Amino acid sequence: MRFMDYLRLGFAGVKAHKKRALTVVIIVGVLFSVITAGAFVLQGLENVVSGEMLKPTDGKVLVMSMVDTKVCDEECDIEAEVAKIKQNIAKYGGKIIEVEVAQTADGMFYKLKQGVFASSSESADVTEVVVPLATAANLAGIEMPERDAEVVEKIEAIKEVREKTLGKTIESKSSEKHYVADILPSGVYASDLSFMNIGQSGNPLDLIFSQVRTGASQNFITKSAEAKPKSEDTTSERPSGFMPAENVNVEEMGLVFAEFDSIKAAFDYYWDEVNYCSENDRIFGTCGRDYKYQVLSAVSDPLTTYENLQNVWLVFRIVAAVLGVIAVIIALSTYARLIGKDMKIISLYHAMGATGKQIRIVYIVYLMMLSVMAVGFALVVGLGLAAVLSMVNMTALEQMFMLGFGVVKDGVWLIGWNSLLWYLIGAMMLTAVVAVCLGNGNFKVKELAKRMK
């Protein structure tokens, strides 16, 4: 038989058992739709959050590694420890970023010697900075509402700061001019993306949204203004007679900046036994015996968020596995009954000269069609549920991103494709093959003859 013959006969089988086919499609599809909806939402959240956190660094992860002074006593050799940190960074594929600390009248900034952030200012008489929203507000002299203010008031303040500072040159109270090239995502009014931040309680999405840490971004100078000729009276140019200190290389302080190409690479480095210590263990001083260095995200907190979401994924995969096994058992038993009820049709195939192998292929195609219909139903329903969930919570999601990251985001869609869905499709396709193999006796002439008596 040709390929089209197998498809035609398989489709004829679907039509012959409409009710039973519809039953398996709906039951299995509903169970799988729970998995697909959860996978779409969880992956969608991870995509949109990581996209926002890593957007300023073009998808790369900027981390800070420092010698933990609680572990390394006063006799600690900072230079030697920094060398070890650098070796470990290279081991995980990281790139060392040379950074200096610049103490100015407007606060402390990290001055980058490599292009981590995109530069957009061409003016030579202003200092180009990339800072979190709170710093941008401070430089522009904009008073931000208190944390207990109304959500609408805080959101309006965030929009005002972005409108008046982003992509503009502003003059601070110290009479210094700064060009704000970008505003980094950082916790403004929320340390996570919990719905509690906007006054909503009991939202089931909080189970995963509360795991997203907004973190605290550092202040960066991406380009310094050209040095001006020194005047005799240097104190008159700065408030309170402030005198800037010399820039200091952060490595002298036991601090090393590094850039990783992906969150996975950065997380593997973060998880190294010499770097990793959970928040609770650090509070109670129970870090591992090999722990020596503290590793933090320099922009927002993709490392902690990635770790938290991996734990959520673990729980989700266990639930998905349970639901998936139940769905496969239902499908397998239904497929077996379908084959068992087709004795006359199978006998007819034999009478028409079809071999046992050809008949098996016909039924594999037939059952795979049912599997495809069930999976298609699950994907459509799951996608629809994820889309509805996004639309229903769209305003709340946009508000949380503004309060949590200080960004204005139009449209937060919780829809993303995860490889788990391929396993779901594969499991259903394999179920069709297994059902035919288990019912192998039904396709043999002798067995058919016995059952037909």
The coarse silhouette is elongated
- Model regions low in confidence, pLDDT < 50 over at least 5 residues: 238-243
Trace the largest sheet across and list its strands.
6-7-5-8-4-3-9
Average pLDDT metric? 85
Radius of gyration from CA coordinates? 31 Å
Distance between the termini: 29 Å
Measured by DSSP, the beta-strand proportion falls in 5-15%
How many domain modules? 2
Major beta-sheet overview: 7 strands, mixed
Helix share, percent: 40-55%
Keywords:
453 residues, alpha+beta, 2 domains, 11 strands, 51% helix, elongated
Short recap of the structure:
The chain is of the alpha+beta class. Helix content is 51%, strand content 12%. The strands form 2 sheets. It has a 7-stranded mixed sheet.
